[in-house]
Amino acid sequence: MDSTVNIESNHINIKSFVDERIKTFELVLSELEAMSKKSKDYFVKTLTKDNRIDNALLENYQFESHGFAWFETYRIGLRETFNWLIRLKDSNKAAEIDYNILLYSFAEYVSQMRDGIMISQTEIVRLSDIGITKNDFKFADEPNVNELISFGLSNELKKDIVNSLENGIFPNLGLNDETLEMIQDQFRKFTEEEIIPYANEWHLKDDLIPDQTLEKMAELGVFSIAIPENYGGLGMGKIAMCVVTEELSRGFLAAGSLGTRAEIAGELIRLGGTEEQKKKYLPEIASGNILTTAVFTEPNTGSDLGSLATRATLNGSDYTITGNKTWITHGARSDLMTVLARTDLDKKGYKGLSMFLVEKPRGNCENPFPMDGMSGSEIEVLGYRGMKEYEIALDDIKVSKKQLLGEEEGNGFKQLMETFESARIQTAARAVGVAQNALELALQYAKDRSQFGKQIIKFPRIFNKLAWMVMEITVSRQITLFSAREKDNDVRCDIEAGMAKLLAARVAWSSADSALQIHGGNGYALEYPVSRVLCDSRILNIFEGAAEIQAQIVAKGLIAR
Amino acid sequence: MKALVCVKRVIDYNVKIRVKSDKTGVETDNVKMSMNPFDEIAVEEAVRLKENGLVSEIVILSIGQDSSQETIRTGLAMGADRGILVKVDDILLEPLGVGKIIKEVCEKENPEMIIMGKQAIDDDCNQTGQIVATLTNYPQATFASELKKNEDGTLNVTREVDGGLETIKVKIPCVVTTDLRLNEPRYASLPNIMKAKQKKIETIESKDLNLDISPRLEVLEVNDPPERKAGIKVPDVSNLVEKLKNEAKVI
After folding, report:
1. Which CATH number fits domain A3-166: 1.20.140, 1.10.287, 1.10.10, 1.10.3470?
2. ipTM value for the complex
């Protein structure tokens, strides 16, 4: 009972409370790591047939193995949130809210790991599903851990978190680098002044982001971040990419996603292109002169790229490409398509796929595809507007042999896979930005709105939601930045990048949903930006690997690693 | 023409200011700091003059602790050439002290234009430019809303005054302080942020300058502004007039 009394009196100095319990946090992390090993062993044993992971068995255990992916996502999320606070402490930058968030994240996530993780709104994975027993969680009942959890879940702590937010104090991003902080600062300003005032109008009118805004972004260097210096780019790496992406997405998802187009094409060409292709296209992509669009998905081929049907046939020195493609983002206002097509009809699955760099004249809304052999129509969508989505048909379009990426057939899938790490990290950063947007809108509304004689932010059901949002946003951001750091250090991080995307996308949706709930009926009105954020956030669980595919990739990677 | 731009590191204008519980000042721990917005306008103006070939070199000067390097770096990322940090530790600087330091730096650097914000948004003194002009005996053009360089090297400065706009001609070297409408500062682009990393910032210890920069003022107490009271509804105009006269005492 003693600890309860302490907690409710709320005279605990959070900094010393956490500082004195660093060992307890470390203990929790090492217990979770041991459990993770146990769970992995369980899956390896259960899913192995003839000395290898059996795909049919894996499918039978899809829910359970995805549950393991989520368990690990939580564990790595907590580890990186802990590391974030330690780094802040070391540089004397940790504020009260940072300590509170660390404590809350441990309390909440460890409880969920023990009692059930909601992997979607209709699926909860429990310990027994992933080969762990209640007994493995005995450490959580020990007094020091139990105290940490009960304080971490207390209303008082959540109230403190939201108090800080009310005073304009948000958790430290943990960039710990003067240049990155300056980048963040400049892009926040840009977003505040050039994106946020217009985003809702662009969304409601289903407009393209104006050319002038695109030009300003190009001038700021948005499209050149990932492109190497010797090809006209800045060669800045993934952390810088995350910082820019989060800030732009905080204003409008499509703004943060413009960079993704350049990133995908840039990475494809950088990693898979010939020297000539690199010299020709990379500087133009970096400067924003060439806008690119990814042409991979087909009406019957989404996540299962192996069944891709668009074909490219070589006749003399040209290929002719024929097929239907869909979900072509920014399809009209772009100059270069990266088209995935089958060059070898005899080879099924991923083999026989090749990537083409297909130039096209830039279209507009009235005449989206002014090119012979190419036609298409807009797909109207709930959110993620500003670039427009298209379904297109390619009918015998001619492409020179020189436009085959790497000038070698059959590498298309491999080339695309190489870009996935970056794309996932970048998408996670987009999700964090959208979630942050939701949080800030909800916070403002909860402060401004009074009911029953007080600001609604003072009601526990409201401030609880805000505290939850900022806590989960922080965990998502830290796991995203962790993958980015690994990528910058050339460490393979496909699994962590997948985890970052998996978690951040869920957090974006739940944050947007809670933010709208806080707005009540007003949130349902189109004129309130939160209604747009809800629509925008929904796509994050779908594109760049739907949540189920993402969990599958993470699970498979973990079990095979 | 060489420009010296003086910039101050202040609490970011978006931050909700909190008074310390002991009323000795405002909270600055873990608070976002930025360049004083008026100084940002000064940097922008210098950079535009340089882009138009009217300024040959831009030096950014800031006075403060090590952290003020970040503020200088922002100016460098906007397009200035190099920086000078005069380090002071634990002294509450007042405009007079700042003016003396700037004068010292001017003697070393010999700028033809010293440009800075008309005031800093933290203490709102609106004194530094004027004091520098006095100490250096240079002409001053304060509250500039437009700046033009004449062929004879003088500057035409348009000032926002109560009655409208006033244009004065000043000889260089001179001191210019910037008003809000002079320009809209640019965002530092990623390439320029990267370039700024290579630019030099020289550090000078203020104690090596042998100046008396000790404070002349004593801060007795810092308080929050009074909280806004809830409004009331009045039944009619005569009631409103009565309240404006007798309660609010504004008419």
Report:
1. 1.20.140
2. 0.90
